[in-house]
């Protein structure tokens, strides 16, 4: 019975979440801060897990037509995220740093080789919040691509009591997006990891 309801939920819930995302998008006042220029150059794209309600939409605002995929966990909540992102034209790569890591990173690298951008939440799927996993760094360094860092802050918002402190801006509030492209060229792995972590913490909700 549980499997049955999960299958039904996997079909019904993603379009509902997508609808809520779009309603929030269109009813908020948005300001974009491009800390560095973001052109059409291919990137590895990152945002915090708790910012998934808005950041993929901001990604599509900036890169409207770029082919993209996202590393999503194999848990049920990951299935809901995967189904929702499909509505934004972002295809799921199912796996995580804890389960199926080697397989999904290989899939991600193949996607990159085809010219796709890959979206990753470095602190997903289970945290700890605002930590950076090895996967995002490894993929960026191996592919020799810059990283597109996406963050946002909101004037008024709801924040869940979940591990990621998931944030949903309130309609008609002001949302400010912070976009930057960073390069890891010439860095050692640990140095690159610390650098990305510091950049992702510059503009985020605590």
What is the rounded distance between the termini? Answer: 39 Å
Helix- and strand-based class?
alpha/beta
Order the strands across the largest sheet as they lie in space.
Answer: 1-9-6-2-5-3-4
Q: Helix count?
A: 6
Name the poorly predicted regions: none
Mean pLDDT: 92
Helix content: 25-40%
Tell me how many strands there are: 9
Summarize the helix and strand pattern as letters. Answer: HEEHEHEHEHEEEEH
Rg estimate, integer Å:
16 Å
In terms of DSSP E residues, the strand content is 15-25%
- Any idea what the shape is? globular
Largest sheet: 7 strands, mixed
Which labels suit this protein?
206 residues; alpha/beta; globular
Summarize the structure.
This protein has 6 helices and 9 strands. The protein has helices at 2-27, 55-62, 76-86, 101-113, 134-143, 189-200; strands at 29-34, 44-46, 68-72, 90-94, 117-120, 147-154, 157-159, 167-169, 174-182. The mean pLDDT is 92.
Describe this structure in words.
- With 206 residues, the protein is of the alpha/beta class.
- Helix content is 39%, strand content 22%.
- It has six helices and nine strands.
- Strands 1-9-6-2-5-3-4 form a seven-stranded mixed β-sheet, with helices on both faces. A two-stranded antiparallel ribbon has the order 7-8.
- A hairpin with a 7-residue loop joins strand 7 and strand 8 (167-169).
- It is globular and about 45 Å long.
- The mean pLDDT is 92.
Helices and strands, with pairings:
Blueprint: H1 2-27, E1 29-34, E2 44-46, H2 55-62, E3 68-72, H3 76-86, E4 90-94, H4 101-113, E5 117-120, H5 134-143, E6 147-154, E7 157-159, E8 167-169, E9 174-182, H6 189-200
Parallel strand pairs: 1-9, 2-5, 2-6, 3-4, 3-5
Antiparallel strand pairs: 6-9, 7-8
Helix pairs in contact: 1-3, 4-5, 5-6
